[in-house]
Design goal:
Radius of gyration: 22 Å
Number of strands: 7
Shape: globular
Structural class: alpha+beta
Largest sheet: 7 strands, mixed
CATH topology: Nuclear Transport Factor 2, Chain: A
């Protein structure tokens, strides 16, 4: 094989490799819809007091990795999925309704695999219907892409009033 044939083969192999190379991963409209869908599932699970479905929308840390789950509010903080789930098991014993204004949800990608979500949300909480109170929040969350789809990693409810 002469040098010209070898160079031609190398050039052809390079072009074939480029043609089959993955396109860069980007945050797409389908990702935006998936992030919104996981947030809506979170709201539905919380309002239904379905702790298993609620836990299912939260990201799980791979073995040996730090637990990324956090809920930060003015009066409390929960670091890690077990602490957050334990909190909501107790909360779900009373009244808990999580009602986002779905028309006003905003999703902003930070990377192809991480997105911020903002949603004006009404939260009703109390030991009973008679004592329950409703307040408005601007809920800020981060969602991360996992092998199982988009999952929630952080929740920060900010009082709207």
């Amino acid at each position: 094989m002469n040098i010209h044939t070898m160079l031609a083969c190398c050039a052809a192999a390079s072009l074939v490799s480029l043609a089959h190379a993955e396109t860069p991963h980007r945050f797409t409209d389908a990702d935006r819809q998936a992030v919104e869908a996981v947030f809506i599932r979170q709201a539905q699970a919380a309002t239904a007091h379905d702790i298993n479905a609620f836990e299912g929308v939260l990201v799980s840390a791979p073995a040996g990795e730090p637990d990324p789950i956090v809920l930060l509010a003015r009066s409390y903080q929960f670091w890690g999925k077990p602490a957050l789930i334990e909190h909501f098991k107790k909360t779900f014993e009373g009244v808990w309704k999580f009602e986002p204004d779905t028309a006003k949800i905003r999703i902003v990608p930070l990377t192809a695999d991480v997105a911020q979500l903002y949603a004006p949300t009404r939260v009703t909480v109390g030991a009973s219907e008679a004592t329950a109170k409703t307040a408005s929040f601007l809920v800020y969350e981060t969602a991360v892409r996992t092998a199982d789809g988009w999952r929630i990693a952080s929740i920060v409810p900010v009082p709207a009033q």
